[in-house]
Amino acid sequence: xxxxxxxxxxxxxxxxxxxxxxxxxxxxxxxxxxxxxxxxxxxxxxxxxxxxxxxxxxxxxxxxxxxxxxxxxxxxxxxxxxxxxxxxxxxxxxx
Length: 95
Hints:
Elements (H helix, E strand, L loop, with lengths): L4 H10 L9 H19 L30 H5 L5 E2 L2 E2 L7
Antiparallel strand pairs: 1-2
GO biological process, one term: regulation of translational fidelity
EC number: 6.3.5.-
Subunit structure: Heterotrimer of A, B and C subunits.
């Protein structure tokens, strides 16, 4: 697959990226280079190769998944312009 200048302009438009007319050939070439690299990756035989998350075979350290208040509620609320009963107080916006 080859990307021409018109396609590069359309992709830039869809991505909401402003690209000057004189920069479109370079953008099209960059897209073609990326597609060429993807084609090379598609040629690699990965049959029987297990997917991996890391290059080292180790499990990540896990922590206990528990809900806490962080232990700093008073410290956090000390920065609030208005705090009541342990919560941030904000102006009413819905009547």
